[in-house]
Amino acid sequence: MARTKRKHQMAASVAMLPAFVTALLIYVVCTGWTIWVSFTNSRLLPSSQFVGLAQYERLFANERWQISFGNLFVFGGCFLAISLILGLLMAIMIDQRVRFENLLRAVFLYPYAMSFVVTGLVWQWFLNPELGLQKLMRGLGWESFTFDWLVNPDFVVFTLVIAAVWHASGLVMAIMLAGLRGVDSEIWKAAKIDGIPAWRVYVSIVLPMLGSVFATAIVLMSITVVKLYDLVVAMTNGGPGNESEAPAKFVMDYLFERGNIGLATAASTIMLITVLVVLAPYLYFKYGRHNRGAHA
User: Fold this and answer.
1) 3-state DSSP assignment of residue 50
2) Which of 129, 151, 237, 238 could pair with 245 in a Cys bridge, judged by C-beta atoms 3.0 to 4.6 Å apart?
């Protein structure tokens, strides 16, 4: 019996070997190579001339990168806050066992099935002052109505937030709803007997129980923030000027259009560090506390 079990384990290990080697070569080796190139004087082609932190100094002195990196935090903060709140509210609404629950879940989740390119094109049309909402409202008689955020340098990044929230809040709803449906029904029965309002049960009992659910949603949304590219290209292409630039678009432009591999890999390394900073608390919450509790 033990021999059969070892054979099955060995067969499973052999079957997983190609995937492991592929992951090792593509992810670990390529990531290491990218980080190494960011410390070289590479331009159109990779170079082995080591220049230390020179590329990073050029990167953070680059005005376009400064705008891109600033937009990352403005967009990320607004996107995370709004999508989490909106997704949670939609999940709580559906958790009330409303009529047409399946239809509502499909409607809320449908935008996430669309690509960011399609989402960007749709919202670009809708927010275009000459074609969309502004023209519609003025055609209905509100001649002074103005909504020109798409071409306003001070507000253009918030149009990306609107489109991204519309796209991703349904996923947050699905994650939150799964967590809410996992709450013991006895809690609700006890609260009903004690006459505790539903909102108080959610705030004081249910939501504190959903820490891992919130962590999962935050990590997924944060990774979406860091790798934001398609939506920017489809909606604004970084404009007006460079006011809606994103780090991922900066990397792609310098890698393929401007032929500056060193600067592009330095920017991508900073993006990797940003992702690791986001993942570290989640990994600690999920594994670190569990391991410490096991050894206690």
Assistant:
1) strand
2) 238
